[in-house]
Design goal:
The protein has seven helices and eleven strands. With 246 residues, it is of the alpha+beta class. It folds into two domains: 45 residues; 186 residues, Oxidoreductase, molybdopterin-binding domain (Sulfite Oxidase, Chain A, domain 2). A hairpin with a 3-residue loop joins β3 and β4. α1 packs antiparallel against α2. It binds ligand MTE and molybdenum atom. The site of the ligand Nc1nc2c(c(=O)[nH]1)N[C@H]1C(S)=C(S)[C@@H](COP(=O)(O)O)O[C@H]1N2 has 18 residues, from β5. The site of ligand MTE has 18 residues, from β5.
């Protein structure tokens, strides 16, 4: 999709959001309508395409802590660690024309973006790190979005209390130039504690949106059928807001 096409798509999504409010008498709950309005209002009041601040190398934190899952022990993950992630795959699927199954070599051969950014966790800590990887937009262009696609769901390998971690963003954040699938932190392959071998960086959003241990990127029309329906692990189980923009 060309940039212009994307802006048009975002505009269409906003109009669709307004239509939802108009339809509220026809079965939509008032809360649904309010949420649509809220998402639409963010698009009008803030420039969602603005870049997050980037920092000089000298600002990099000496230690980038790990948070949440830092050493997954479930499923095949420990085997992948032992193998050096040579058999890791990132699946791009759902509402796409050409599903992709990419290994780390495929991802490293794509054009790369490197950015020094600050990570802010709602628990009250921040860290600055240098992240490298292909832009998510490049993967989405390769896969080709179907018209119904409205959200990106990040699927993760780590299991927390019975549910694998998952997160989601809309297409504005998905196509944001600083949204990358990072495989390096501070010039080294991602450490396990920070999401090896792949994690999302969504720089305009709070820490919990930056899904680690990425196995899949799924295009969906609605978040209703994902987890408990609020769009992410912490949204479903911790009461966090879906929109975590800064
Ligand atoms: N798969 C997965 N992704 C995750 C988490 C997690 O537990 N599992 N924790 C989130 C939270 S709350 C934060 S603050 C960041 C922490 O990233 P870090 O471990 O690199 O500091 O990852 C986010 N992404
Ligand atoms: Mo966090």
């Amino acid at each position: 999709m060309k940039r212009r096409g994307f802006l048009a798509a975002a505009g269409a999504a906003f109009v669709a959001g307004c239509n939802k409010i108009a339809d509220s008498s026809a079965g939509k709950t008032v809360l649904d309508a309010a949420e649509s309005w809220h998402k639409g209002a963010h698009r009008l009041l803030t420039n969602r395409e603005a870049l997050a601040p980037e920092y000089p190398l000298s600002a990099i934190s000496p230690f980038f802590r790990g948070n949440g899952s830092t050493d997954p022990r479930n499923g095949d993950y420990p085997r992948h660690v032992e193998e050096g992630f040579v058999n890791w795959r990132l699946e791009v699927g759902g509402l796409v024309e050409n599903p992709l199954s990419l290994d780390l070599e495929n991802l490293r051969k794509l054009p790369q973006r490197t950015q020094v950014t600050r990570h802010d966790c709602v628990e009250g800590w921040s860290a600055i790190g240098e992240w490298t990887g292909p832009q998510l937009s490049v993967l989405l262009e390769a896969a080709g979005l179907r018209e119904e696609a409205k959200f990106i769901v990040f699927r993760c390998a780590d299991n927390l209390n019975g549910d694998d971690y998952y997160e989601s963003v809309d297409l504005i954040d998905a196509y944001h130039p600083q949204t990358i699938i990072a495989h390096r932190l501070n010039g080294e392959p991602l450490p396990v504690k920070n999401g090896a071998p792949l994690r999302a960086r969504v720089e305009r959003q709070l820490g919990y949106k930056h899904a680690k241990y990425l196995t899949g990127i799924e295009l969906v029309a609605s978040l209703d059928a994902i987890g408990l329906g609020k769009g992410g692990y912490w949204e479903d189980y911790g009461g966090y807001q879906w929109y975590a923009g800064m």
